[in-house]
Structures
1.
Amino acid sequence: MTSSLSRAQARRIALAAQGFADRPHSRPTLRTLTRTVQRTGVLQVDSVNVLQRAHFMPLYARMGPYDVDLLRRASSGGEQRRLVEYWAHVQALMPVELWPFMQHRMASYRVSRGKWFETVPDLEREIRAVITDRGASTSRQVAEVLARQAQRSRDHWGWNWSDERKVLDFMFMCGDLAIAGRNQQFEILYDLPERVLPAAVLAAPEPTATEAAVELVRRAATSHGVATASCLADYYRMRMQPARVDAEGDAALLSASEAIAILVESGELLPVTVEGWKRPAYLHAQARVPRRVAARTVLSPFDPVVWERERTERLFDFFYRIEIYVPAAKRVHGYYVLPFLLGDRIVGRVDLKADRATGRLLVKAAYAEPDAPAETAVELAAEMRRLAGWLGLGEVVVEPRGDLAPALGAEVALA
């Protein structure tokens, strides 16, 4: 029998699954961070730094102001490492225990090698030798070493920086290299997996294709709470439809639809209908259904709550597009716009910039949603002060753009 959920119930389930119903800690610790990543599953990594790097923001939204060194500690430290970068959703930090479940994905990349690699037949071997010798390195550092070697031996056959980066990224996608971290310029530091990941993770048995697919969908369902099949597939960027079977009868990786069927059969996923949703949905059997969610935070464009825009519209009746790549004259709301979550609803959006040179948080524009409550400006002003404090900025400046800007500016001035 299929149960039904109201849109409000689905919204609260989704927010609880993402950690917004957890009891906050007055001083977030590594344990708090670990619990939070158990909710989000992954932290998307992106180079945009208008406000704060993408992977720091979902933790702030759920934990409140925290010491960003916690994340650096969790994503470094060899045997103590808890997070590692991989192509999990897109480029993302994920728990190290997911590495074995990505082996089939890594294998699929390995067999997809194109003919281009025939033009640089020795480059993988040369790169591995350089990284083995010098340790964690950027593509620029690897290129410099190889260029010096080529000049000495006089047999340089023409690779350049872009070729370097292509091969490094390919080796990373295949799991032949791992990301040890990033330097101050946000450049990737590549290293051998055995120097990046805990030994127990590398020694873990490789899951079967079925086990890997089921685990990824299980984790997606845990992080979503309730979702359509396409949302479950998107969380870890899985195929919806079955893969072609090879001559030995093995598929590279089960499709999301096949994994969903297995989890429905086991009772871990429950088919449900959700008010206003045209497609069938699935509820995680252990999902919390809170009566109330008392959130107040801004959400990064790369936050799991809003990264799947169609899902955001279904849950929150909130149309959202990031406009970084839209010409300035054609932008509707601004360059780097963050939704404002209040309670269990998205009630507004703000275009933000951290002006680090002057120590100011700039609210370039502020807009209220049509059904925003009367207290939106007051609550958003409090959130802007909290965010500025976390970023080490001493002042909030509201510019006069957007229907919410006058009220928000007045509240900020009062404070």
2.
Amino acid sequence: MKCNSTRNGNGYVNFERAVTDCLPADGGLYIPSESPDLRRWILYTNEHTPFASIAGALTSACINDEFSPIICETIATRAFPFSPKLTKYTDRFFTLELCNTPTGSHKDFGISYLVNCMETIFQLKGGFAIFLDVTVGELGASLARALRGKKYLKALLLYPKGKMRGLAESDYVWNGGNIYPIEIDGTEADCHRLVREIFSDRALVEKFHLTVANTANIGRLMPQVFFYPYAFSRLKKDVHSDIYYAMAPGNYSNLVAGLYSWRLSLPLNGFICPSTNELILDMEGQCAVMDQMVPFDKREPADPANPSNLERLEDVFHNNTLMLKNLVFPVQVTEEQVAQACRKLFMKYNIFADHYTSSAYAAAQNNRELTADDEGVVVLVVRDHPALSADYVKHTTGEMPLMPENIAAVLRPTVLGREAMPATRQTVEKALADCMAGC
């Protein structure tokens, strides 16, 4: 699969290069340069096709010029011992749950795939990489789990003081694991600043073979494309009308992945999401990305620490402007409407929903005229387990969701037993050198 930067339509690299050298030098983000027509294959799948098989087949279809079908199938099989879940509540309302994972977060899908993909690349061709990421939540626990037993990958994780959680002592590099955690004497913003400083130095990135495990890396984004063909494989037997996915924007990665699946010829009719300051309805009532008004040469480089996929969304809009204005439907929702949606999901369907899921459902409720035609179906995308937002759920519904042990482990504070380190570039460089010595 050829990839190019959002800021350079001609500088092609292969998928391997885009994943291992995750940020183009021009400050953009890697995007796929081509979209094969997979309609015939997608229509062949059914409700018995495992998610790992769908992921392996789509991987092979996209990067068959770099890896054999057997290698692609192996990556997917190793990455996905877990699967999304599609649940039917009525003939016109379904949920697509992405939280049936080891940490209860949708991030597990992308991180597990990225880690197994990169480990396979280095097994075949030599080399290694170090992930440099900031985490205050599930990313650290997810990455630690995915890296267990890997030989060619390590991760340097920056935590603001007092925010470390979800790690086991066996994960630490000095105990034979693959995680080098650093508790920074500062805030999350300080941690983000340090990662930006490191990645702004291309020589340093190359010296330490640095990459990221967030969606700035196209290898982390790509497996999110698989969610929608999987959902369709379960829907197509019962649904013969329009299909709309309702989702919270987040950093826009699931929305971009959904649009990429549409470009692969997946049958769907659109995406409903709460509008944001960046993704709005214009004066004509059509979807618009506000950043489009700012030329690329006037922008900062893409953020390796806290990425947004708006630039990828802009690229899709630029190439398919007329069609996409009829595929993405931002809807204004208020906090009160979000709370009402949370309560309605619980009372009507016995669904515990976090703020993200509730906001997506509120957007779908506020745009019911869209799905009324042809008795359209709404698939509500549930990103994370409600126990990760138990306080919000309890406050809004009056009921506390069950807390599975795997979620409790993710939320459990981790005491490193070392002093917090100064928020300086020297701190990170020294730790990277220690990490590299063990590679």
3.
Amino acid sequence: MRIGELAAAVGVTTRAVRHYHQSGLLPEPERLGNGYRDYTLRHAVVLARIRRLTELGLGLAEVRDVLADEAGKDLVEVLTELDEDLARQEAAIRERRARLRTLLEDGGGPSAEGPVSPELAALFRDTAHLADSPMAVKDREMLALLETAAPPEERERLTGLLGGVVSAPGGAERARALYGMLDALADAEPDDPRVEEAARALAATVPDGLVPEGTGLGEADGFLRALYADFPPAQAEVFRRMLRIVTEERS
């Protein structure tokens, strides 16, 4: 992705991206032969987390401490201190305190992808039993990224649709089976016959409205190109075929 595509995907400005580079929060990507930065999905995941943390009121030094601690302990300490400070300004920051309290009172502390909305945090708790799947871990990162970039009403719609998939009868079992199919393709080739089976199984679980009409599937789309590049070839092919199946069958 170019810097403009990265900024648009996460919902920040290109100036903010450059500032986070200068502050040492966002690693510099490799440059193409023409000198342009080439951002990957990993950069988008980190940038989305930086945005969520700064929206909670954390300073850049505090964000740096949180990003350096993958266990999340520093995040709890920082959020606790921030909550005590915000309590003195309750009228102006009531909504922010509610979000912080949800994070601080969560049973296991903020997740590795956090902070996220209470709705997405609840979905993560409902699927915690799938955390042993590498694909499930990536899926959680992607959901946190998409939620960060979406407007509030879209966030609610997204988590509602996904929550319905998991809570439906047999939903948890189907999710585990799908993650197992995808994990098994980590070292496979794109023409592996299991790719088509996984794509169709995945497409069958996609609720109506999750993939908006008119979604572009071309490799020219910087975000999709970065998404596919973040997965092994066979897994990326599953997602390509799944999107094609969903858009063709529901058009």
4.
Amino acid sequence: MTQYLTALWRNLNCSAAGDRAASSMAIGISDERIAWIAPQADLPAFERAPEFAEYDGAGAWVTPGLVECHTHLVFGGNRADEFGRRLAGASYEEIARAGGGIVSTVNATRAASEDALFAAAAGRLRCLIAEGVTAVEIKSGYGLDTQTEAKMLRVARRLGRELPVSVYTTFLGAHALPAEYRGRPDEYIELVCTDMLPTLAEQGLVDAVDAFCENIAFSVAQCERVFETAARLGLPVKLHAEQLSNIGATQLATRYGALSTDHLEHALEADVAAMRRAGTVAVLLPAAYYCLRETQPPPIDLFRRHGVPMAISTDCNPGTAPAVSPLLTMNMACTLFGLSIDEALLAYTRHAAQALGKSDLHGTLEAGRYADFVLWDVDSLAELVCWLGASPCRAVIRHGRIVHEAPGMRETGS
């Protein structure tokens, strides 16, 4: 069958699958996917579709599209007041136990209309896209009842339809205990397992299942009930684990072959070894670490020693990580956690796609993957990590089409 080239990008510096290559590279696109990537002098012969477009990259550096593998983008209200309370010395746990934190966002999200949630989340998502994001995970977890969880997940699906980004949805019903179930956590988990998760999965709203396993949230036994339900429904799992303490969350997650465990400040070597055996990705969330003014970082050296892939994400949420900048998040990961520049770039591309179970679609520049990539106006990729407050993003290409561009980007011919 004849392969038609629908777009060609020339004169690029490419970071392909994590490896750096020389300049004067080219990327050929056919049917929304990368057909070819190599020195442009070696460009093979393709039939050209009528709408064939050719672009001059003018020496820009190119990376795969960034992948946000842990966000809470859909929510109502805001919790800016908690920032001041933390500055005054209140801890995350104290704020949560006083009725703030997640529960306050639940109240605002329940009261918000679907259109209002969409409009607010779309603004945040556009910020991510403008810094190179082409795929994003969006969690529920601010509804804590079937109706509102469904509303959040419908909004997430709509974001994926109406904005130029691939959206993957995660059910996080076991995020916090709603006020109406105070003192009855087992009864709430029963609701999650027998009503919420099966109903939402049947409606096609759930790609994966998450839970918050922590002293201020749900126990290992309660989270295991959620994972058992996910397994029966054929859904992959991930887990908020070892953020504030170590209660055995990672050990639970790895027993169920979790795609990722996230936060991990209090993970032990036995946890890291279990992640390696299970193929579980460590998702680092430095913005939450920074905003909570934590002092114990995740065990980066143990992840390296055991060969556990590390991903990074903004953790965009209204309270503990009000962050919408992947580039700043990469800087935080390097500055606060000690990641190298190459580790940070892999963490936002290849390893982040792995944390979503989507390595076959996103995260690398390879023939057959979606043509999702970013052009950067930089002399070296180190500039993506070191600068604060400015984005050198020239253009974002998703499925072969320009979806965001800086002024002056133009097609050069066809």
